[in-house]
């Protein structure tokens, strides 16, 4: 892999700068000084500063924004763009397993890098990867960590664990036909693992790779609380206490999950997590659709984050998360793309725009509409908090990480520039990305990745799905039959 440019001091001069800092400053012609991967100063600087810099970037006709944060993705699904349509949540959960099971570590690396390529080229600099989709070992975690190290991105690798059954994706009656059930048990990609095995795997991963490169975090990530025993959830609490890591999970994505959890716990999932000591600022929860007002209040009180995934929620018809109520109650809300098979892309620009649009229809009180500024906060500072790094990135202000993106203002959708925040959320798609900087390293220049050889990785990724279809031929046949049974 080629190494990203790493000068100690970079100066960006004369750009339109949206800081998202404590004063919410927008500078029409501002300078940004980067020193050793950190924002040193933002504002108008003396001409002599440039002489002491290793590199000066001309900001003319450029908008500088904090890098976007994708706070919920699944990198193993990067090769499953547009693989199916018209499937509900149950059917899709079975089908995409066939695309991801039984991979080699190299294939894990390539699929992770493919996700990174798409995110970098659309302005995302940090991500929380709910990884992977099925049984995995230390070599798979190492492959994902190596990919994020080589990509230059900031990442939280959330280790998806469970020791219970995926009862929420069985047919409405609760069981599969006998012959099909036997085939599923023989090839089951969702086979539970023991708490002891998962404890060893998570301990090894956290101790070996948490903090790698100063950009990569590791933590346990229950697939969904209802698929985990209380012993496993309490294990996650222990990791928070022992290592200070964060915990990520799917939460209340579908109505059936709410019903099953009520039967299991005799209370709501959110209250049960609180009883176990897991509902803290060290917890971020993807989806969180089927939740009531009392639980929203509890999440706000405990400081837990919600990751809104508007694209995948709409496409799978799972429901509409009560985001306006969450924002009004003070819940930290971030944005995620979900896996590419669920949303079709990794562009947080699309998620931002949808987040402003989908909560307005049928709401006569415009004060409850999600504003472009709120959506932008979800995609930046809100995402940082959901990655357990509140205040460390997400704004262009002195002391924060130098994670930022320069957009080309000569593009048609920026002509003319009216309000940069409204225009950024409503008009920019990521196509205007010109330069991407993470931790002070330039990863993308002129709209092309310069930190590593993206072309060779794309070529390698093209062969991944044909190989998986051949290798997992029996599993594809079984999950397609399951899909017919659960629709």
Question: What does this molecule look like?
Answer:
With 487 residues, the protein is of the alpha/beta class. The protein folds into two domains: 9-66 and 401-450, Urease, subunit C, domain 1 (Roll); 68-386, Metal-dependent hydrolases (TIM Barrel, Alpha-Beta Barrel). The protein has 19 helices and 17 strands. It has helices at residues 89-100, 105-121, 138-151, 178-187, 195-209, 230-243, 255-265, 269-276, 293-302, 310-315, 323-329, 340-343, 348-357, 372-378, 381-386, 420-426, 454-462, 464-471, 473-486, and strands at residues 9-18, 26-35, 38-43, 55-58, 62-66, 68-73, 124-131, 154-161, 216-222, 247-251, 283-287, 305-308, 332-335, 404-408, 433-438, 441-445, 448-449. The strands form three sheets. Strands 1, 2, 3, 4, 5, 14, 15, 16 and 17 form a nine-stranded mixed sheet that branches. A four-stranded parallel sheet has the order 6-7-8-9. Strand 2 (26-35) and strand 3 (38-43) form a beta hairpin. The longest helix has 17 residues, at 105-121.
